[in-house]
Design a protein that fits this description.
This protein has about 475 residues and is mainly α. About 75% of the residues lie in helices and about 0% in strands. The longest helix has about 55 residues. The radius of gyration is 21 Å and the shape is globular.
């Protein structure tokens, strides 16, 4: 059931460790990289609630969630095969959009599958097992360019383009992603909807929420978006901040529309579920916001931060830069490897301290790991930093979902998992909007400080976790 996540994370790990490198190689300025990345989280914001909504209502020969696994895997594999061969920066950005959209089509149905198939007491172990396969796939994927270089594959392209180590890694990634997802499809059965509804631990749907007051928060968001827009024009802020203003205005318009519409279509249902989300999801929002802000900062800026600060170069055509970029792949493999080991330890932590305190401890370890990047100058010692990041990563991928799924109705598990993705996407949009501005105004455009901000953000996520209640029946 969880093996397909090995393939999905294979694709995500190649993306996270190498896309910034591809963008820089194709001529992107380091300050423009967050904008080029923004297609990925924006795609998830749109795709996942829609996929969740329809997967809750799907049942055919392939099952309920499995049709979405297959469609996403096929298109993601094609994007991985094509991306390292792109001759232009705009094409690479477009393929990142396709890749992330396709992975998102598969991702949340995989999350919902665990909630469908497992009783409450087994869900922490189920999500931890997903974290194990995520870590296992990401270890190999992140290290592939470095491993291929050890076997003599060219790590610097003669024409200054994308090296063969990256190209062959992406080719292998496409095959692994499709194969792993197909394995889960062919070896996993799904419970039909009637049987799911009969489970004794199914959470009933709550009463319908009165959405007539949704216009009030919608108006506040509209005003906030307009204020940000004015600030951008007045203070000549970075163009990336327009993303933040646009997001606030768009969501404000949707909430205002929700308060007035009499529609009963898909958009009305999804927005109604957003407005009436369970209290447990609302309280987890801050945890996810600070957690994923940190992760996005790490994915975007680790390559630039390590190569510029520790290896002393920003020349993407130099052997030193490519050596440093390969080492970043090793570091990403390391945190995913430690995350796979942490996935074995986390269920034991939960039994001893409960879901909430276990998550607090792991986030603090991750915060310390990222903050240490500000002080370490020997790249090999950064492997020690990745121990903490690995524990935080495994915890972020499992414990919030266990805290959430215990309090959601099975009939709407897919759409609520998709909505929960908002709190993964919004902090990534926020990071893409403001990180460049913060680095320019506060840190002299030194990308290593983005990792320090990520460490502080994980500590804030740990603080927010203390306000999330432990589910009833757990210790």
């Amino acid at each position: 059931m969880c093996f397909g996540f090995l393939g999905l994370q294979f694709g995500l790990a190649l993306q996270n460790a190498n896309v910034s490198r591809i963008f820089q190689t194709l001529g992107a300025n380091v300050n423009d990289i967050p904008t080029l990345w923004i297609a990925a989280p924006l795609t998830g914001l749109i795709v996942q609630p829609i996929v969740g909504h329809y997967s809750d209502r799907t049942w055919n020969r392939l099952g309920r969630r499995r049709p979405y696994f297959l469609a996403g895997a096929v298109f993601a594999s094609l994007a991985l095969l094509w991306m390292p061969n792109t001759p232009a920066l705009w094409m690479a950005a477009g393929l990142l959009w396709i890749l992330d959209a396709s992975i998102n089509v598969s991702m949340e149905p995989f999350r919902a599958l665990v909630g469908d198939q497992l009783p409450t007491r087994q869900r922490p172990a189920g999500y931890a097992m997903q974290s194990f396969f995520i870590g296992a796939g990401a270890v190999v994927a992140s290290m592939l360019p470095w491993v291929l270089a050890q076997f003599g594959v060219a790590n610097v392209a003669k024409d200054g383009g994308i090296p063969d180590t990256v190209k062959f890694a992406f080719y292998g990634g496409g095959a692994v992603l499709l194969g792993a997802v197909l394995w889960t499809m062919l070896t996993t059965r799904e419970y039909p909807p009637a049987q799911l509804r009969s489970f004794t631990d199914n959470v009933p749907e709550g009463p319908s929420v009165d959405v007539s007051r949704a216009g009030r928060p919608g108006l506040l968001l509209l005003l906030a978006g307009a204020a940000v827009f004015v600030a951008i024009r007045h203070f000549a802020l970075e163009k990336e901040v327009y993303l933040l203003a646009g997001g606030l205005i768009l969501f404000g318009l949707l909430l205002t529309w929700l308060g007035r519409t009499r529609s009963h279509g898909m958009l009305r249902e999804v927005m109604g579920d957003v407005y009436g989300m369970p209290i447990s999801m609302r309280r987890l929002a801050g945890v996810q916001l600070f957690s994923w802000f940190s992760l996005f900062a790490m994915w975007i800026y680790t390559t630039a931060g390590v190569t510029q600060t520790i290896y002393g170069t920003a020349d993407t055509s130099s052997s030193v830069y490519n050596e440093g970029a390969n080492w970043v792949g090793v570091l990403f493999a390391a945190y995913n490897g430690f995350g796979a080991l942490a996935a074995v330890v986390i269920p034991l932590m939960v039994r001893r301290w409960g879901l909430r305190i276990s998550h607090v401890m792991n986030l603090c370890l991750g915060g310390a790991g990222l903050l240490s990047f500000l002080y370490i100058r020997d790249p090999h010692w950064l492997l020690a930093s990745m121990v903490g990041v690995g524990f935080a990563w495994a915890s972020i991928l499992s414990l919030p979902y266990a805290l959430l799924s215990d309090n959601l109705p099975t009939a709407k598990l897919g759409v609520y998992m998709g909505i929960f993705n908002f709190f993964i996407v919004i902090p990534q949009v926020l990071a893409a909007s403001v990180l460049g501005l913060l680095l320019r105004l506060c840190f002299h455009n030194q990308p290593i400080w983005a990792l320090g901000l990520g460490g502080a953000s994980l500590l804030l996520a740990a603080l927010c976790t203390l306000y999330v209640p432990e589910p009833e029946g757990r210790t």
